[in-house]
Design goal:
It is built from five helices and twelve strands. By secondary structure, the chain is an alpha+beta fold. The strands form four sheets. The chain has a five-stranded mixed sheet with strand order 8-7-6-11-12. The protein has a three-stranded antiparallel sheet with strand order 1-2-3, with no helix packed on it. Strands 4-5 form a two-stranded antiparallel ribbon.
Length: 196
């Protein structure tokens, strides 16, 4: 039996907290479930689904183009939002560190191509931004990081090896810049295994 409890605040009834509690009638025990679980997010060891997305009106990029080298997928909610701007600018600044591992960085959001081009130009980005626009969020859904209730992608990172296997994944809270430390550690770990 699943019981859902919704709590609202006195100051703003539009702010609410959702609790889901599953109740085992036989054992009279409770198990708590979160309303947003990470069970659908692709985990390390899984094969990364291939995709082809537009980066300009006349250019497409496929994940399969980068087989034989590491690839970083940086899903983010929206162009021109403050946290996304900071995150993508950070990755642009440390792009040489990613390139030391021969890694390709791909930014992905549900924004359209023209928004990506304007955002990339505004931030002077030197890596492709891919438009997961139509069908909206199709690639984010394959990776388990589409926020259906908001119509955007989670702030999620995947490091994929040259064989197309996910070696590291992370979903950050939507309003928090995840930085690059996890990506760099994942690349370093992959490089150390290759050196053995």
């Amino acid at each position: 039996m699943l019981v859902t409890i919704v709590l609202t605040t006195n100051t703003d009834p539009s702010i609410f907290i959702l609790f889901c509690v599953s109740y085992d009638m036989k054992n009279n025990s409770k198990q708590r479930a979160l309303s947003l679980t990470s069970s659908s997010v692709l985990k390390p060891g899984k094969h990364a689904p291939d995709f082809t997305l537009r980066t300009t009106p006349d250019q497409e990029v496929s994940l399969s183009q980068f087989r034989s080298r590491p690839t970083i997928l940086a899903f983010y909610p929206a162009d021109f939002s403050p946290v996304c701007g900071d995150q993508m600018t950070l990755y642009n600044e440390i792009l040489p560190e990613f390139q030391k591992s021969n890694a390709e960085l791909l930014g992905i959001s549900v924004d359209g191509i023209w928004s990506h081009l304007a955002f990339s130009k505004d931030r002077n980005l030197h890596f492709p931004l891919l438009s997961d626009f139509e069908p909206k969020g199709a690639v984010a859904k394959k990776y388990g990081v589409y926020r259906k209730q908001d119509g955007i992608a989670e702030r999620a990172l995947f490091v994929i090896d040259g064989n197309g296997i996910i070696r590291w994944s992370y979903v950050s809270p939507i309003g928090v810049n995840p930085g690059a430390e996890g990506i760099l550690k994942a690349l370093e770990s992959m490089n150390s295994k290759l050196d053995k």
